[in-house]
């Protein structure tokens, strides 16, 4: 399927684009099933927050229309939306009249092993630390070099994901997923006010927990808290939920709350 830039079929980008020069922009990775972008209102909501934070003059109604049309043509797969500030001249200062650029790319559904969801995965404990920057915390911005460095730390198929901490040692997330743990029947997930990506599936799970009367909290978590967990899982908007069975010397069973949430999430993704 041909990529689209600003609504037109294209496969090349202007060298003056600030996304290329400075990572000045945002992106969303959206699951497409039955010609529909899954959980798209949440993707748009996060995009709107990011656009406001970065002062991008983005037409969200146009983005919505273009993405839904693109998803309908794709049918099934993964749609990547990239929004940059558009063209610029040399220097960091953004032009006040810059026109954001919209880039849409299509990809196939990833072929993850079924065992990831059924038996669970092992996490690699990454040495790369996430910098604390509250102004960018939660956003799916284009600056992903921390994740690139972290993912380069392991090559073994023994690990399906990596655990990431901030410079103070707090647990933040996985490399391309968010992390939850269960302790005493309470669902816990790291506070993302300093750094990290506020994932669409993370938001959906917190909303599901509220609807199902599951107690849930967002708070600072250390490795010592992980040691006391009854269950651990990771999530994102493409694969749903993967139970975590181990990291370093710690191990956990696939617990009942993880299985319950997994079942509920599958209902959302299998439209």
UniProtKB/TrEMBL annotation:
UniProt enzyme class: lyase
Cofactor: pyridoxal 5'-phosphate
Documented EC number(s): 4.1.3.38
Pathway as given in its UniProt record: Cofactor biosynthesis; tetrahydrofolate biosynthesis; 4-aminobenzoate from chorismate: step 2/2
Keyword annotations from UniProtKB, A to Z: Folate biosynthesis, Lyase, Pyridoxal phosphate
The UniProt record lists the keyword Zinc-finger: no
Pfam family, any one: Aminotran_4
GO molecular function: 4-amino-4-deoxychorismate lyase activity
Catalytic reaction(s) noted: 4-amino-4-deoxychorismate = 4-aminobenzoate + pyruvate + H(+)
Domain of life: Bacteria
Family: Belongs to the class-IV pyridoxal-phosphate-dependent aminotransferase family.
Quaternary context: Homodimer.
Protein name as it appears in the record: Aminodeoxychorismate lyase
């Amino acid at each position: 399927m041909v990529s689209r830039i600003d609504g037109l079929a294209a496969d090349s980008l202007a060298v003056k684009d600030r996304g290329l020069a400075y990572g000045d922009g945002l992106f969303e990775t959206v699951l497409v099933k039955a010609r529909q972008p899954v959980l798209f209102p949440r993707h748009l909501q996060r995009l709107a927050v990011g656009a406001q934070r970065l002062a991008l003059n983005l037409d969200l109604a146009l983005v919505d229309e273009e993405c839904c049309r693109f998803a309908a043509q794709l049918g099934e797969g993964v749609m990547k939306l990239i929004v940059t500030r558009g063209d610029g001249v040399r220097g960091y200062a953004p032009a006040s009249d810059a026109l954001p650029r919209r880039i849409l790319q299509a990809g196939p559904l990833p072929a993850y092993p079924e065992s990831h969801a059924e038996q669970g995965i092992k996490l690699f404990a990454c040495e790369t630390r996430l910098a604390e920057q509250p102004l960018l915390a939660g956003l799916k911005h284009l600056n992903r070099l921390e994740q690139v460095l972290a993912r380069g730390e392991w090559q073994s198929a023994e690990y399906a994901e990596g655990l990431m901490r901030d410079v103070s040692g707090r647990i933040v997330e996985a490399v391309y997923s968010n992390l939850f743990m269960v302790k005493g029947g309470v669902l816990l997930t790291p506070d993302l006010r300093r750094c990290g990506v506020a994932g669409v599936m993370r938001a959906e799970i917190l909303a599901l927990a509220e609807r199902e009367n599951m107690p849930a909290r967002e708070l600072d978590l250390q490795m010592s808290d992980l040691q006391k967990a009854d269950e651990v899982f990771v999530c994102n908007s493409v694969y749903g939920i993967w139970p975590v069975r181990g990291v370093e010397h710690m191990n956990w069973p696939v617990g009942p709350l993880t299985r319950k949430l997994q079942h509920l999430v599958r209902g959302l993704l299998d439209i």
